[in-house]
TrEMBL record:
All residue ranges annotated as the EAL domain in the record: 202-454
Species of origin: SAR86 cluster bacterium
Xref: PANTHER family: CYCLIC DI-GMP PHOSPHODIESTERASE PDEF, SIGNALING PROTEIN YKOW
Protein name: EAL domain-containing protein
Gene3D superfamilies: 3.30.70.270, EAL domain
GO molecular function, one term: cyclic-guanylate-specific phosphodiesterase activity
Amino acid sequence: MDMDIQKIRDIGSVAVAPRILRTPRLLRSSNSPDIISLSDYRQLRTKDDSLLSDALKGTERAAIFTIRINRYEMLLETFSGCSGDQIASHVEKLLLSSLRETDFAVHVSAEEFVVLIRDVALITDIEDVAIRVIDACSYLEIHESQRIPISIDIGIANYPNDATDASDLLRFAHIALHSLDSDRHGNYQFYSENQRTDHREGIMMTGELIQAMQEDRMELHYQPIYCLKSDMIVSVEALVRLRTREGEIIPPDDFIDVAERTGLIVPLGAWVMKKACMQLASWQKCGAKDLCMSINVSPVQLGDPGFFDLLEAAVTESKIDFSSVEIEIVERQQVGTDVDLILSRLRNLGVKIAVDDFGTGYSSLANLARYPLDVVKIDQSFVRSMLENSVAKSIVSAICAIAEELNLNVIAEGVETIAQEKYLLSLGCQKAQGFGYSKPLLASALSRLFSNTPGGVFRYTLREGVM
């Protein structure tokens, strides 16, 4: 597998232990809580005579916050005039302004702080502090004329409810932080026992994923997308799978979330883009000249400063047209202004932009106006139930009508029956995919189809049964 193995190892280590700030600083304020910078994160995890253990003495209820500055690396890339020290210094001031004199904070790494909230009577008091901290750390004012929007996430562990030991509290706060939805920023999360189990399983999956990437056990399967009027395969969607050493296939739902949380999605996504583009070039040489490739893109990938260049290189090196590539973004993901610009740049090259799982997010109609879209993919949950559920039927009908008005193509996901196909055709839906046509296939299976048909065009209908 063409991946930077050292980067994969580095990312794997970050997944289970925060980074260390190598240059310690001690910042104190006479009117505010102290912020202490540590040279070694383990100082916080020492059970006896540690800062946190001492601070917990004499308090009946307390909370530990683990705070992360979101997209810290992107901030450094975007605002090249700002050093990491400048950003950290400004966040420290904002954090100090939102805490009480009885609290204190520790600057653990470049983008991470640990805060002890002492002497709180109720859970709601802890929530109030968390909200105040998030609100205070919503922007940086580096210069008088420049305000930089930022966001932080907070993981929270309660003393004594969750644990009485400082080391355990710190660990639980970290688990709560990592359980937050990676698509949405500016939130806080309390620790729960379920998160502990999920965290342990996540660490195991991280190890499995790193090994699979190192040992070339990641695979791409391709699901055909059909034109409903011509019955032709017009494009394929590349879907990544993990094969265990025992030969078992692990679906993406079981590892993509872990890949996003750890950052492994960046090298994995780069590999997917390169391999999918090379495979499309091979099929087009076999005669499937008009075939397109659809590639799923994570919000973490979109937020990576190198994403645009990676995709551009994958297409250029494969010697395929940009117009034959489509990227799918999930409808629920939150993207910033920088990502909007990247999508516009890609579309200017000719790359098509599709919004996946449409109708399942919080602002579906707003996204139609915001994104430079070409395609809307109707979520399979609506398609599968639309003939039995009047609400789902109305949603599918409305999506098709809006898409037609906006001159967007529509792809229905999860089509399994002739009745579903006929209804979609009556609504003007142009394309469909689903197990009724074909499950995702290895490239070799699709290659045989394209090489054995005139002009590399394969026709197929539901009436002929599942492939």
